[in-house]
Every structure is written in structure tokens, then in C-alpha cells.
Specification:
alpha/beta, 6 strands, 40% helix, 16% strand, globular, DDE-domain-containing protein
């Protein structure tokens, strides 16, 4: 009957209806048991060989965030049937801002770096937050070879060095993006006793700690903040409309 599925799920509480997500064929092929085992075997070998404690293990990644929202609304609301159509104010600003995050294996994070689109900026714009983060500019808001090396030299090395607990090397885990393995960055790592450990290609959706455990929460928090700002803007616009009606 039509109710069979509903009753079947009610009898088996461990089951639920799920919706599959799209997966790139390269990721599906690359993420397998042999690749994952080899990755962790190599990681264990490097840490044991150089006596690297977990307090010296870091993971970095970058996340692009649009200043507005383009995706559809997932939340549902109870509305009167006569209230159609229903709209929710969205920001039309889809400029990209990139954040570079770096977290230590014990959960402590370094100061993030934000990359805004543009050519230059005035330092006084960010005086209130300059102590808690770093600010960079690029033409499109993306990272490039120079910016990544600059982050490594002026943000990661000083902070990670200050948090050393011993003379053991520092281990930085990251993905294989081209800007993460430039000659300048490798040279800086050798000079500062830092080992660079690259994740296997096309596996970051499962093996990149920041992707799996941090950036999902960041995306949700960012969307919530965008909604709050848009709601406040919408409220002010309504107030102005009311004032104009009575003038």
C-alpha cells in the first residue's frame, strides 16, 4: 500500500530517507581503502621518524565565501495560504572573500587570514580586528602563489614557532593546490624546520580535516549572518517606507 514505506521506516528506527550528493568521478575513484591506508601509514612514518608530537601538527585550508547568498532557501515557514508569493531579501553582492584557516591537531587555531578582492586597502579600515586576523588583497579575492607564500612566512611560521613545545619539527598538512607547493614556500619550510605533508589528490572531501570538521560550520554560520544583515536592512527599508507614507 501507499503507507508501506512509512510503516516500514517506523518499524526500523535505524533507517531513514536520504538524498545522495553529487560526487566527482575523480574523487570517487581516488578515495579508496588502499589510498587511505597509505596516507595514514606515511603520516605515521613521518611523525615517528622525526619524533613529531601532535602539538606540532597543523592543518591548513582555504575557503571561498561569497558576500551575498545565491543558493535557494532550505528552511520552511508556516504561512497563511493567501500570502503568495513569499520572498526573502537576499544580498546581490556575490564578491568572493577567501579565508585561510590553520588549526593544530589539539584543536587550537591560529589567527585566520582574509583575502579581499581589490588592489589596495587602508590599514585604518581594519584597525579593530587587526590583532585577531590578517588582511590581504588580490584582484579577484583568490589566493595565488605570492599570497600563499606571504601567509606562510608572515602568519604561519611566527605563530607556529611561538607555540613550539620542543625542538621537534613542525608538520603542516595541506592539499596539493599549486600555490601550496611553490619553491619559495618549500625553501621557507626547510629554513624553519617545517615538514610539508600533502594530502592524496582528489580525497580532500574526506581526508581534509578542515573541510570535514570546520568549514561546514563556517558556511552555516556565514549564511545565518547574511540572513541577519539582510533582515536588518529589510527592516530599515520598511521603516523608511512608513515614514514616507506619513510625510
Amino acid at each position: 500500500s501507499r503507507k508501506w514505506l512509512t510503516r516500514f521506516l517506523a518499524r526500523h528506527e535505524v533507517l531513514k530517507l536520504g538524498k545522495p550528493s553529487g560526487l566527482d568521478p575523480k574523487r570517487a575513484q581516488a578515495f579508496n581503502e588502499a589510498t587511505v591506508e597509505r596516507h595514514f601509514d606515511l603520516l605515521r612514518k613521518v611523525m615517528d621518524e622525526h619524533h613529531i608530537p601532535w602539538e606540532h601538527v597543523y592543518n591548513m585550508d582555504e575557503k571561498g565565501i561569497q558576500r551575498g547568498r545565491r543558493n535557494g532557501e532550505l528552511e520552511k515557514y508556516i504561512l497563511h495560504r493567501s500570502e503568495r508569493p513569499v520572498y526573502k531579501l537576499r544580498s546581490a553582492n556575490l564578491e568572493l572573500v577567501t579565508v585561510i584557516e590553520c588549526v593544530r591537531a589539539d584543536g587550537e587555531s591560529l589567527k585566520p587570514t582574509f583575502i579581499f578582492p581589490g588592489k589596495e586597502y587602508h590599514k585604518e579600515w581594519f584597525e579593530l580586528i587587526s590583532a585577531s586576523c590578517s588582511i590581504c588583497m588580490s584582484p579577484n579575492g583568490w589566493t595565488d602563489d605570492a599570497l600563499c607564500a606571504e601567509w606562510f612566512e608572515h602568519a604561519f611560521i611566527p605563530q607556529a614557532t611561538a607555540k613550539r613545545t620542543s625542538d621537534a619539527p613542525i608538520l603542516l598538512i595541506y592539499d596539493g593546490h599549486g600555490s601550496h607547493a611553490t619553491p619559495r614556500l618549500v625553501e621557507l619550510a626547510l629554513q624553519n624546520n617545517i615538514h610539508l605533508f600533502c594530502l592524496p589528490p582528489h580525497t580532500t572531501h574526506k581526508l581534509q580535516p578542515l573541510d570535514v570538521g570546520v568549514f561546514a560550520q563556517l558556511s552555516r554560520a556565514w549564511k545565518k549572518r547574511c540572513d541577519e544583515v539582510c533582515s536588518a536592512t529589510n527592516h530599515e527599508m520598511r521603516k523608511q517606507d512608513i515614514v514616507r507614507e506619513y510625510m
